Amino acid sequence: MTAEITTTGISNDLQPNSSIDLMNLSSDIIESTTATTNSLLDSIDVNEPPTKKCKVTTNEKPRLLEDRIGSILSCCICLDLSTLPIYQCVNGHLMCASCFNHLLADCKLKDEQTTCPNCRCEISKSNCTRNLAVEKTISELPIQCDYCLQTYLRSEIKAHRIQNCAERPVVCDYSLLGCNWNGPFHTLSSHLTVCEYPSKTGLELIETIQAQKRAYDEEKKCLETVVDLLSLNQIGVSDLILKPFRTDDFVAKLYFETSRFTALQYQWQVRARINDNNPHPHTTVNRSLSYQLVLKSKISQTIDLKFFLLKGPHGDPSTSQVQPIIYHFEFNPNNTETEYLKLPITSQECNRMLSSSSISFRLLMVQLDKP
């Protein structure tokens, strides 16, 4: 009983002291907080404006409108803005004429169905149309001149490069006499003042003039030969169409043939092949077309013949003219086929022909009179 009273008394004695200590601690914290707040308020300048939010700056410039439009109207194959005709698939994806013809030619060589590179829909010359609105829009977009680096409209850049650009490359006015100078147009006048060819004598220029005359004579001879052939009696003119076929090999090859036709009282046929019978012509960029004239009639005597090909009247109107090359061949009972002869066309023209369902041309044959 005595122990309990003693313990209780001790605990009661300690309670007042603990309350006093807590009160002293609280007052110390309040005083320190007040002092800190007062020091912060004293350090703030009343006249200083409030701080603004920092703006995030970027070095990227906004794209120009013509750049954004150009990326939309570019060809989906070459990704370039072309001055050639623009074709579109049924879903509106754009292709320039060069890529369009090349794509059709590739699939024709591989015997595959041609599809749009973007949406994989079927495309052909019958279901793809030209987009004239895109062509006109592209012609009004700016482009930089390759020579003077100035900006012009695409509809004006061709005339500028040929006629008006001061930096366009030109040759000397006396280049036909042998002067090899070339440079920007604005330096031509200064070159002409020091050019030595106007003061040269005829003996010094005779070799150059003779070379020019030889080239002129070759062109003249070709034209005279054509005129002379047309004046002969036995002339055959045939408008033919080359149709595509494929061999029965494991790797089928594309070739072309015409139907049999009659000319000069004989039966004939024309065959054609791509890249001189290359087994994989679709893997090459440059393409060529070669043809062969075959005599189908049986003969007992020699036929002396000259022939050449021209652009056909029923073909693609965009196809350029074919430069005539006259070939001479003697058909006999043991030799009724000519060698494969290259058609003088560019690789782009070859792709345009391959993209068509058939190839049209005109064949002129002249039987020479026996001496």
Automatic annotation (TrEMBL):
Molecular-function GO term, any one: zinc ion binding
Alphabetical keyword list: Metal-binding, Zinc, Zinc-finger
Zinc-finger recorded as keyword: yes
Residue span, RING-type domain: 75-120
Protein name (Swiss-Prot/TrEMBL): Cysteine and histidine-rich protein 1-like protein
Family per similarity comment: Belongs to the ZFTRAF1 family.
InterPro entries named among the record's database cross-references: ZFTRAF1, Znf_RING, Znf_RING/FYVE/PHD, Znf_TRAF
PROSITE patterns for the chain: ZF_RING_2, ZF_TRAF
Cellular component, GO, one term: nucleus
Span of zinc fingers (TRAF-type): 141-179
Annotated TRAF-type domain residues: 141-179
Keyword DNA-binding appears in the UniProt entry: no
